[in-house]
């Protein structure tokens, strides 16, 4: 509880600084719970708006920017994308997300300095706060027993193939519980405890109401299951049900 209070105060301080100095201020990378806290403070952050971004579309860990209403200059998020790859593919191990993250944390880097870590067959793409990029490039030389090299990616959009599975089905309405059940091919009864247990986030905001109505484009993250985007209602059936589409990230 004390940790959460400290976090709330930090958010309020960043918003106040943005307003008083007429500059954009930034958090470090926030997890879903922290993003929810920021969203819950919206009414208290007078004179500024806030927006989150993690370096690419549908990122989970995000940096929040506090933007004064009277801002007159262009700005960008302090995010860098790094490409981590074996020095010699012939001697490379099969590395997991846990392997890469463990190697980074062993360098003494705080988790909030690091965003999403995307893995492909032979390398990884890491999003980090930009002032940490050179340190990681110089210091990360090995992941487990595999010697690696780190370079700044030429683009912020990850080269990792992100697979989206389109799922279509009919629901009585676009309620949260119904769409989660469709996306994860389960029953509403099995999904309800996840919602009520605070494990479901819509656009970074924790939602505990089963009947919450979703809007086209909403991104839903379910702890332990994954995330999906509500693509929208395709049509209405003769019986008054909605034919909908969701894009599940895998």
TrEMBL record:
The entry's keywords: RNA-binding
Cited CDD domains: S4
Limits of the RNA-binding S4 domain: 174-235
Cross-referenced SMART domains: S4
Pfam families from the UniProt entry: S4 (PF01479), YlmH_RBD (PF17774)
Entry-linked InterPro entries: Nucleotide-bd_a/b_plait_sf, RqcP2_RBD, S4_RNA-bd, S4_RNA-bd_sf
Protein name: YlmH/Sll1252 family protein
Organism (species): Ruminococcus gauvreauii
Taxonomic lineage from the root: Bacteria, Bacillati, Bacillota, Clostridia, Eubacteriales
């Amino acid at each position: 509880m004390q940790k959460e209070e400290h976090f709330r105060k930090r958010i309020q301080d960043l918003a106040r600084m943005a307003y008083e100095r007429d500059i954009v201020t930034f958090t470090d990378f926030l997890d879903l719970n922290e993003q929810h806290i920021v969203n819950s403070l919206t009414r208290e952050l007078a004179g500024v708006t806030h927006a989150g971004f993690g370096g690419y579309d549908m990122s989970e860990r995000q940096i929040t920017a506090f933007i004064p209403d009277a801002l007159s200059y262009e700005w960008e998020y302090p995010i860098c994308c790094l490409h981590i790859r074996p020095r010699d593919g012939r001697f490379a191990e099969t590395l997991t997300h846990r392997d890469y993250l463990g190697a980074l944390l062993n360098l003494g880097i705080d988790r909030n300095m690091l965003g999403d870590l995307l893995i492909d067959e032979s390398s990884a793409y890491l999003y980090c706060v930009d002032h940490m990029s050179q340190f990681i490039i110089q210091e990360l030389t090995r992941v487990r027993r595999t010697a690696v090299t780190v370079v700044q990616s030429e683009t912020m959009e990850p080269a990792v193939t992100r697979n989206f599975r389109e799922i279509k089905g009919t629901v009585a309405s676009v309620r949260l519980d119904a769409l989660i059940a469709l996306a994860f091919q389960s029953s509403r009864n099995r999904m309800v405890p996840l919602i009520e247990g605070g494990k479901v986030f819509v656009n970074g905001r924790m939602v505990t109401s089963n009947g919450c109505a979703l809007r086209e484009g909403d991104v839903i993250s379910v702890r332990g299951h994954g995330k999906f985007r509500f693509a929208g209602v395709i049509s209405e059936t003769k019986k008054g049900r909605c034919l909908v589409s969701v894009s599940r990230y895998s």
